[in-house]
Amino acid sequence: MWSSLALLAVAVSPVLAGVQEVWWNLTYIQDANPDGLAPRRVIGVNGTWPPPPLDVNDTDILVVHTLNSLDKPATLHHHGMFFNSTSWMDGALAVSQCGIPPGDSFDYVIPVNTSGQLGTYWVHSHANGQYVDGLRAPFLVHPQQEKHHYDEEFTVVLGDWYHDEHADLLKQFISVANPGGAEPVPDSALIYFAQNATYLGPIAGTSPDPVTAAVGFNENATLSFEPGKTYRLRVVNTSAFAMFFFWIDGHEMRIIEVDGTDVEEYPIDLISVTVAQRYSILVTARNDTSANWAIHANMDTDMFDTVPDALNPNVTSSITYNSSAPLTDLGFVDEYFDVPDLDLVPLVVEPMVPATKTVELEVLFDTLDDGTNRAMFNMITYNSPLVPAVLSQVTLGENATIQEAYGPYSIVLDHLEVFDIVLKNGDAGKHPFHLHGHKMQLIGRAEDYTSDDPSLNPPIVEGQANPVRRDTVQVPSMNSVTMRVIADNPGVWFFHCHIEWHLEVGLAVQFVEAPIQAQERNGIPQVIYDQCQAQGIPTSGNAAGHVSATDLTGLPLGPFPQILGWRPKGIGAMTGCVLTATIGMLAVTWYALGGHISEAEMEHEARQQQEAKEKRGKFFGLLKQKA
Amino acid sequence: MGKNVFSVPIFFIVFRETLEAAIIVSVLLGLVEQIVRDDPGRLSPSPPPPPSPVEKPEGSGTGSGELNNQPELVHQEDNEVRAKRLIRKMRIQIFAGSFLGLFFALAIGAAFIAVWFTQASDLWSKSEELWEGIFELIASLIIFVMGVTMLRMDRAKVKWRVKLQRAFEGKQVDGRTKAGKWVLFILPFITVLREGMEAVIFVGGVSLGQPATAIPLATVIGIICGLICGFLIYAFASRTTLTVFMVAMTNFLLLIGAGLFSRSIGAFQENAFNNLLGADVDDAGAAGDGPGSYDVRGNVWHLNCCNPESKFDGQGWTIFNAIFGWTNNATIGTVLGYVFYWLAVVAVLIYMKFKEGRTKLFGRESAAGVRRRERAALDRGDSEASVGKE
Predict the structure, then answer these.
(1) B255 vs A: CB within 8 A
(2) Are A383 and A506 in contact (CB under 8 A)?
(3) Which residue positions does the secretion signal occupy (chain A) (predicted)?
């Protein structure tokens, strides 16, 4: 099992000095009860939950030796990492690998030393919603010298929490019984802290649940502040569904990092962190220690179809100056708002370069022809291809540049092509969109993409000197966001809504980037092929596993938008109805006419009937008439 | 608006019941003149021999006895006056019975509907579709029976005449009961009451799926139309006209019935779908029309318009729905329901016509058919015989 590890050790030996290895055994853990409301089975690592935080330096290569002890294929996705020219390490199931079969292992190599990436990321399963069941942890990359100055740092992990397992909820979600597509509403929210690759324990004196006793959650968790010091808080939203509004009573915040991009200090009262987004904020401690202060993480309930009475969407934790001082909780803020992320200015200047391609993606949700509610980009709902696109890309030869070969939800890009993604959200909800393997320059937002009014739908300003770069962008309803991306990363990269429920109903496309260069740089390890074959998944050819570029026979597609109106079935049925009604009315006429009975006959019959009736007596002869 | 003010099924039901009552009353009115002016013997042209005039005085104590004194009177003038007076008296009896019956029927009906809409309304607010389905099913079945039997209404006149004659004859024969005096009152009373109750139960059943405001206008217009048609039939009593009229009415009724039956299946299916969703589909899925507003399983057609239940553009479609059972969302169940309702109508009519001896089925004859043929042969034989004698 660990033999592959030995091979890898040889493979990476030239830079062995910086290799940081961790061994992750993915396991189920019974009866975890972090919110103290309901014990449930979770997916943890090495017998513990939450999975350990990852902390590496920017000179390191991180190797995560992953053993899948679950009963389903699993993957790990290091969210935001570039994996330049090695997209098979990206961990997106059915896009970049077939998943680690149960009992098998895979070594994820994250070459932080060459990616030039710093800051706050996270790691989570990208298979079958496993991260919703708990397989998620923060992942930090520290530079030798931070650009911003602070005394100490903490990681703040936010997450929504379900008391039922993802697979069960998914069955209810994608169902004819849920035509409106109401997403499962979380049962509670979690906030917990980490520092130096360790989670902070619970406040002394609290009695946490034994399974997760090492970690403090919500009001059992606290951050210790010392007066006058400045702290960096790295806020990560690991939710499946919920966006959080985060603020600290009695303290001001300054944003200094967004999705791994260091930015100029940006003072703000509260931050909105949607699913998979990260912000680092600087918080300067107060000088008085007479009170402790509440940390607030309120779930955005706008996206919840219902807010059950039992749900407390607003969780608090605290900042402790003095364990004997009282806690000050100022309650609600006046107004929620989204972080105006276009106003943030990266410290490393990267000007916008002209784009040569525009990819417009319009989001729509609807009840499709199988009666379930699905999500669509440009009216196409995503289905996993039979062959992971990473394998199609390197096995299709010259056909690899033909977009159709990868399935209808794929976009092929040339090497180093600069392209715009215009994400138009035609849905009533807000959605966080994530592009794998890249950071996107956010170059424009429109409040209403259907509008002709330039104040609501402004044109893109070319030549912006330094637009903000991030890997996950929030798009409110009817808004559009334009993102400029350079296709400098040969491979296949998933682009999807990071709300897990929406990914599962097909709100995704795959960018097939620089196929020819990807073939040249192909270094897909044999284990990728082996693990596909072990699951009976084809490893070459187009999306459906055929050599041809265009023959997609057998490729799972649909469901499709409903076609309403008069279709042959309906016309036939209507004709049948009209026909039988006509026959029926003719029968009525036929009955009334013909076989004429004369008055005399009628009278005769009537008399006979009356006589028979009298003979029979009343009530069908039950009461015999007196003779 | 259409649905809230005028309920088409209720109109037809009330119309039909009124018409039937009107026919019966008109037969009675016609009979009165016959009884008074004509030889009682003419009342019964067929075999039962007219009771001998000798017996008549025995019934002199009864109301009908009065007229039997007639032959004994000498003066024609007196006769005429007496007859007119008698006819008026009898007519008053008939109308009194009719109106009293109508009054009772309306009173009971009003109480019935009041109870429905006040006491029981919260009962079906929870599972509206289920109740709608149940009542539509009941209504469609009653309409089925009503529609099919309505075709025999051209025989109602004869039937009632026979019935009445027997009533009178009975009095004359045994003369031991005083009921005869009231027969002209009781018969219309019971008839009107019965038809009225029928209409009320029906109106109640049908109206449950509809707002209370849709009932009064439809009822009143139904009654008026029924009375007018009843009078026309009475006045110009030609059997052909009546038959044509009956055929048209029956077809209308059955169209409504088939639509109701189909709608009841639709309502049951929607109820099942709502149960599956755990909420009304308008809340859990999409309100109105289009994807999400209906169950795709077993759907045959769905139009993104023309919804008879729509509050905004349902005007014309509501009427279309009431008369033909139109829906913008048909399922296999509703389509088959519609088709089989009509097939059942056809089957029953064929069987009835066969049973009445008016048609052969696969070369076979019913008992009534055999009887009719034999009677016809007998008549022919008699006439031939008589011809032969001459």
Answers:
(1) yes
(2) yes
(3) 1-17
Domain locations in chain A as residue ranges = 3-343, 357-534, 569-621
The two structure tokens encoding residue B269: 């299916």
**Which residues from chain B sit within 8 angstroms of residue A588, using beta carbons?**
151, 247, 250-251, 254, 345, 349
CA dihedral B154, B157, B163, B164 (to 10 degrees): 170
Mutation for B interface: A183, A306, A373, A601, most B CBs within 10 A: A601
Domain boundaries, chain B: 2-257, 360-390
Whether B23 and B153 have beta carbons less than 8 Å apart is answered as: yes
Contacts of A182 in chain B (CB under 8 A): 284
pTM of the model: 0.82
- Category of A150 on φ-ψ map: left (φ > 0), alpha (ψ -120 to 50) or beta: beta
Fold match between A3-343 and A357-534? yes
The shortest C-alpha distance from A584 to chain B (Å) reads 5
Q: Report the DSSP pairing between strands A373-377 and A357-367.
A: antiparallel
Q: Give the CA distances from residue A561 to residues A87, A380, A450, B257, B292, in Å, rounded to whole numbers and listed in that order.
A: 32, 8, 21, 35, 11
Q: What is the pLDDT of residues A207-250, one digit of tens each?
A: 778 899 999 999 999 999 999 999 999 999 999 999 999 999 99
Name the residue among B155, B251, B335 with its Cβ closest to that of A573.
Answer: B335
* E runs forming strands in A200-277: 222-224, 230-237, 244-248, 253-258, 261-268, 271-273
A3-343 domain in CATH 2.60.40.420?
yes
Which phi and psi (to 5°) does residue A419 adopt? -135, 155
Q: Say if residues A515 and A392 touch (Cβ distance below 8 Å).
A: no
CA distance B281 to chain A (A): 8
CB-based contacts of A453, cutoff 8 Å, min separation 6: none
Give the tens place of pLDDT for each residue, B144-201. Answer: 887 887 777 667 667 766 766 666 655 443 334 444 556 677 777 877 787 777 777 6
Contact A179, B284 (CB under 8 A): yes
CB contact under 8 A, B349 and A587: yes
- Identify the CATH number of the domain defined by range A357-534: 2.60.40.420
Q: Write down the ipTM of this complex.
A: 0.83
CA B125 to CA B119: how far, in whole Å? 12
Q: Of A357, A414, A397, which Cα lies nearest the Cα of A549?
A: A397
Tokens of B97: 């019975």
Query: What does the alpha-carbon distance between residue B259 and residue B341 come to, in Å, rounded to a whole number?
Result: 9
